[in-house]
Amino acid sequence: MSAAPFSRLDPFDCKNGDFEYYLEQFDQFLAINSVADDESKKVPLFIASIGQDAYKILKESCGQADPKGKTFEELRALLLEYFARREFYQRNQRQGEYTGAFINEVKRLSLKCNFGPFQKEALRDRIACGRLEPDDKDDKTSMAPQQTTHPKQQQQRQQQQQQNQPRKPKNPQSAPPQLLAELQTVAIPDGSAKGAKKKQPQQNQPNQRKCKICGHLHVESECPHMGASCFMCRKKGHIASVCREKIIKGQSWSFYEPPQPRKRNIFVMEPAWY
């Protein structure tokens, strides 16, 4: 009676496995089971061990022929050539890899593919499609470490950039809103500036009185200075132009001083009596 065979091998991983290493394991499996010299059992054991994915590839490589009708060496050569060509066409230049090393690796892989007279064309196409950089110089520059600047140097550069930037003019609207409101309400006296036109007195419109907050003719509830505080007495409810304490104390609150008339010397010529 013959000894019971050992358990079968795991199926081959077509995505991440190396078929050459798998064949070495399969040879040891045949030797353990004393089938290394029996050619009639090698093909069935090989087909049963490689798995469904690898058997599908093997059947497509055989074409119309039946894989069972071929020898073990023929099936082995078909799968070796298939996986070698797949590795060859999937080989691209890695990031940071020198172009010379990439070309040597592609040449080494092409020796297992059995391209025959088309080996030069296959090498040319693979190198042209798989390269990242045009030459070795660009690879060296891309692999060179980037120079880092010291934090103090970065601060100095930022300060220089801020100093070189043009300064923006101050916005006149940045003044306090209360001061702007009082400036708008102050009236310039007649004849104070050249070309100033005299304002015609406004006729009192019906249902309008002088506002106690700003002194203009409108309803107090619609006054734009509602809630403003006075610069004279620091109280809310009116502005400095209508402040009563200013009138009582006799203080003058004006942002504009009218020009004083010039003093002129008038000479009167008396008639001569002869």
From TrEMBL:
InterPro entries per UniProt: Retrovirus_Pol_polyprotein (IPR050951)
Positions of the UniProt region annotated as Disordered: 129-176
Biased composition (Basic and acidic residues): 129-141
Biased composition (Low complexity): 145-166
UniProt protein name: (northern house mosquito) hypothetical protein
